[in-house]
Amino acid sequence: MMQAIYLDNAATTALAPAVLSAMQTQLEKCYANPASTHGPGRNAAQVVAQARTQVANLIQARPEEIVWTSGATEANNLAIKGVADFHHRQQRKPGHIITARTEHKAVIDPVRDLESRGWRVTWLNVDAGGRIDVPALAQVLTHDTALISVMHVNNEIGVIQDISAIARLARENDITLHVDAAQSLGKLPIDVDALGVDLLSMSAHKLHGPKGVGALYVRQRPKARLLAQIQGGGHEQGLRSGTLAPHQIVGFAAACTLAGSDMAEEQGRIATLRNDLWGKLKTLPGLIRNGNGEKTVAGILNISVEGVDGEALLAAVTGGEQALAVSSGSACSAARAESSYVLRALGRTPELAGASLRLSLGRFSTQADVDIAADKISWEVNRLRALSPLWEVSSKMQAAS
Question: What are the distances in angstroms from CA 278 to CA 299, 301, 302, 308, 353?
Answer without folding.
Answer: 12, 7, 9, 19, 18
